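FAQ: What does the model actually see?

It sees only this:
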Amino acid sequence: FSAMEYSVFNGGKRFRPLLCYTVAEAFGLRPEVITPFAMAVECIHTYSLIHDDLPCMDNDDFRRGQLTSHKQFNEPIALLAGDALLTEAFLILAQSYREFSSPLIECLAKASGGLGMIRGQILDLGLGKKLDSLSDLIHLHELKTGELISVCFEGPALLAQKKPKPFKEVGLLLGLAFQVKDDLLDAAEQESASFVSFLGQEGTATYLNSLTEKLYEALKENELKTPALLSLIDFNLNRQT
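And it is asked to produce this:
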């Protein structure tokens, strides 16, 4: 439990849980309705970071200014802490949503599983299709980053008894914008394919502005253009970490 808590509570932007709350607010849902789902999403996100940092993956020593889990504890404990958080996410959904647990579990499992986030990680490690084009890179990040951000739209939509597919598309767009901003911020440190390596610094900044404009339009089309969601998109555009 100490290793789980260490990684869950070691800081970070909490972008995904906050996004769950802002989307839920746009649908007229009470905060307490979305809280378990937001917790489940953050458990999945944290598990993925623990595993990404392992020596067999990215082999990172630090995460959010602190030692990574396998450095603070050891590799087996870090691996098991990630496994436990992954399992905990679905336990939270099963215990918290009796009527909606099945579609919510399916939604989160698809986004985080072998055809979603994990597939994106496989491509990012160079174990799948070679990244020969910008479209390949976009596909990678729609899976690795976009899928888990898209469930922050899909989950609230399901709880509000709306069809989730149109809102998933908004989430994929936001996930892509989030990754493009990360690439801009990390340009000096990147050794693998990135938006900056394909487009250059100025071209990537232009692409981010274009994605942001598309997001504004998508929110308007889906009746989600609330002050809170607009603030999150502006935050991504202007953040420095």
